Amino acid sequence: MTTIQEVLTRQVAQVLPLKEGLEALMKKRKVRVYIGIDPTGGRLHLGHTIGLRKLQQFADLGHEAILVVGTGTVLAGDPSQREHARPSITMKEIEENMKTWKKQASKIIDFSKVKMRYNGDWLLKLTLKDILGIASHVSASQLFQRDMFQRRLAKGDTVWTHELLYPLLQGYDSVALDTDVEIGGTDQVFNMLMGRELQQKMKGREKFVLTIPMIVGLDGKQMSKTSGNTVNIEDPPEDMYGKIMSLRDELMISYFDLCTDVPMDEVKKLEQDLASQKISPRDLKMRLAREIVSKYHSEKKAQEAEQEFQHVFQRKELPTDIVEVSLGAKELSLVDALVEANLASSKGEARRVIEQGGVKVAGIVEKDPNSRVSAGKGIVLQVGKRNFVKLN
Which of 231, 389, 230, 223 is nearest to 296 (CA)? Predict the structure, then answer.
């Protein structure tokens, strides 16, 4: 059983106003804790799992845990860490994004212990009087102090009014749910502290803010679907394993800490062994890939994914299972073949990846977009490291 001390320490950046205060409260009584996620996309990735796992830890200790899906806040669009306003989203897109969310989250969350709520249920019912009442507790200068807004203004860019409203809407979740604790990434501190302020002014009581570290994506930048550097929790085992193996070496230890259940004493020992070269980066990364694939699939699937990885990437052999594609024409351009085989979304993308040396035809790199391939001869096309098709 995870202890209160562990819940408030591992995978935690900061507890505001004081960790000791939250620890004392959790020892005194059960707290109500939540995390909110806006449905801006249909896939949950490893970055989402850090907060979801933290929420489950609170639930396992018997506290009242709530996963809030931001069906209301997503309409305003979170401006955190954004250099430009988010594109508006439709209700149809929101519904489409949420279709498999609970199924995905179930890999981490035990919904017999955790409630799922939708903040559109209360935010979309607010009247003008309600909104003015909420806004009356916060000064406009407070909202403009956000660093990303200051950067935009300094460049002469626009800060839109609906972006200023976002922290108030997220903050009001704390009031509507009457919560003791909110969990969120370090990029959410401003929004969460807004909720703390509204809880104090509108309910006359304290709310604690627990921040979790932001995970870095495969390319060393913040993990986000926009950057295309995510490891999604519903990625097939082979893809998930391959993505982890492409991770930059210096990020491995943070992934062990933030994305696995390997005890911290062991993580620190692995870090020491890596530094002293007692273990190779490749072997440690394979251990990390096994841990993550096992968590979201199974140990058996992780072993199979590792064998396939060794088969394809270490021994430079073809995958055991290659999708076969039947093309209508007997002979066609390589550009058209990539598009027809769904290895590129457009001719422009196909041409670009060919010219960059990212395409192999029958195991040989082909950089000429005008080259032609023959269908029906079992030729294997490869794009990148993991995408193969056989032309028949």
Answer: 231
Question: At 380, is the pLDDT very low, low, confident or very high (cuts 50, 70, 90)?
Answer: confident
Mean pLDDT of 257-261: 94
How many CA atoms lie within 13 Å of 296's alpha carbon, on the beta-carbon side? 26
**237-314 belongs to which homologous superfamily?**
Tyrosyl-Transfer RNA Synthetase (1.10.240.10)
* Residue range(s) in the chain whose domain bears CATH number 3.10.290.10: 323-391
Could you say which DSSP state residue 223 is in? Answer: P
* Type and span of the H or E element at 25: helix 19-28
What would be the CATH architecture of the domain defined by 4-212? 3-Layer(aba) Sandwich (3.40)
Selecting from 3.50.50.60, 3.30.428.10, 3.10.290.10, 3.90.550.10, what CATH number does the domain 323-391 have? 3.10.290.10
What would the pLDDT profile of 110-121 be if each residue is shown by its tens digit?
A: 999 999 999 999
Portions of the chain given CATH number 1.10.240.10: 237-314
Pick from 236, 181, 232: which is nearest to 209 by CA?
181
CA angle 139, 144, 150 (to 5 degrees): 160
What digits encode the pLDDT tens for the residues 195-250? 999 999 999 999 999 999 999 888 888 887 767 788 999 999 998 998 998 888 99
Residue 222 per-residue DSSP state: B
CATH 3.40.50.620 domain span(s) along the chain: 4-212
In the chain the beta strands, taken as DSSP E runs, fall at: 14-16, 32-37, 64-69, 114-118, 181-185, 208-212, 323-325, 331-333, 359-361, 364-365, 372-374, 380-383, 387-391
CA atoms within 13 A on the CB side of 69: 21
Q: Is the pTM of this model over 0.90?
A: no
Scan for tokens 């009581």, then name that residue.
Answer: 205
